[in-house]
Amino acid sequence: MRQILITGGAGYIGSHTAVSLVNAGFEPVIVDNFSNSDQSVLSGLKRILGQDLLCYEGDCNDRALMEKIFQENNFEGVIHFAAYKAVGESTKFPLKYYNNNLNSLIILLETMSSFGVKDLVFSSSCTVYGQPDELPVKESTPRKEAESPYGNTKKICEDMLRDYIKSGVNSRIISLRYFNPVGAHPSGEIGELPLGVPNNLVPFITQTAAGIREKLTVFGNDYNTPDGSCVRDYIHVMDLANAHVKALEYLFKQGENFYDLFNVGTGNGNTVLEVIQTFEKVSGSSLNYHIGPRRPGDIEKVWANTDKINNVLGWQAIYSLEDSLRDSWNWQQKLGEKG
Ligand code: NAD
Ligand code: WQD
């Protein structure tokens, strides 16, 4: 079997990518320390896939563990999801973020090199663009100074990967700049599992609709956008998962010393109020929300130009915003049933 290591594979995007990998004929192997995920994800994966996936519980910063994992398997490639991702928390505990997000990548690259594993897909983020001067944003659009330590870890990791490849190592790497991942596996067996109060819009919406939160605050309606609320490019997590398979398959065909990066979005922007209206439509219920003040640090509008990933990787988003919100809601309702 064609084994692929997925670090952070029990997390939101990693678990969905595990499904895409199996569907494409790969054998994903997970390493996760469960700092932001739950063992129940593995049972959900088993129900979808009809098989157990090999999962190592441990930390990617543990070099000895990473060496053991590489020793015990025969990886064709790696997808590195493991990182801390809470923007607000990163401003309070920047060293926690620099330590985890940078060190785990360094240890991974060194381990891959020792074991002769060449191919890596790295999780980057549209956060590197800040508020871009041109929209939709292209890969060639200059990055802005990071708004948060979290965002800076993504910029630094991208730079580290580019410099690593420039040094002439026998490696091939793609960074994927995700826009806003939403939705869940259509089966409702896996989805996003925010710990505590969600920071992100869609889990806050579904938790409000489920009665876990009293009401959603829309962070500002006085932006320069069609209805005054912020615009984002919301991409279904299964579309995003499939982009990783396309990226890996593309890497396998490249020569030595290869580095490139791609936006992964739908190419469409939606306002917060449009997301709420679409959610109300697919759920058939009205959402309790009110307009509040702007959230400090929020970007007014950003959405992706997806020409590069469409043309070079032959990937494009298939799911609509309605599909995404229907799947998020289905997942939330199934979670409720489980208690
Ligand atoms: P997530 O928190 O659900 O998944 C990350 C997983 O990594 C978790 O299961 C966590 O337990 C694990 N992990 C963290 N540090 C680890 C370590 N040192 N060793 C082992 N496991 C560790 O997050 P996600 O939404 O699935 O994001 C995956 C990646 O995509 C991250 O790198 C994130 O920064 C990036 N990203 C996410 C978004 C988003 O909005 N979700 C957007 C852009 C980029
Ligand atoms: C989306 C929109 C909010 C919550 C974050 C990270 C970014 C990337 C993706 C990792 C915004 C509005 C939200 C709420 C609201 N992650 N909103 N009420 O801010 O685009 O990006 O996740 O790389 O780095 O910063 O996503 O889901 O927090 O917000 O009105 O309760 O929803 O103002 O316009 P964001 P989000």
UniProtKB/TrEMBL annotation:
Biological pathway: Carbohydrate metabolism; galactose metabolism
Coiled coil: none
Cofactor: NAD(+)
GO molecular function per UniProt: UDP-glucose 4-epimerase activity
The enzyme's E.C. designation: 5.1.3.2
Residues in NAD(P)-binding domain copies: 5-327
Catalytic reactions on record: UDP-alpha-D-glucose = UDP-alpha-D-galactose
EC category: isomerase
Keyword Plastid applies: no
GO biological process: galactose metabolic process
UniProt keywords, alphabetically: Carbohydrate metabolism, Isomerase, NAD
Alphabetized InterPro entries for the sequence: NAD(P)-bd_dom, NAD(P)-bd_dom_sf, UDP_G4E
Entry GO terms, CC: cytosol
A Pfam family the protein falls into: GDP_Man_Dehyd
Subunit structure: Homodimer.
Family: Belongs to the NAD(P)-dependent epimerase/dehydratase family.
Listed name of the protein: UDP-glucose 4-epimerase
UniProt organism field: Cecembia rubra
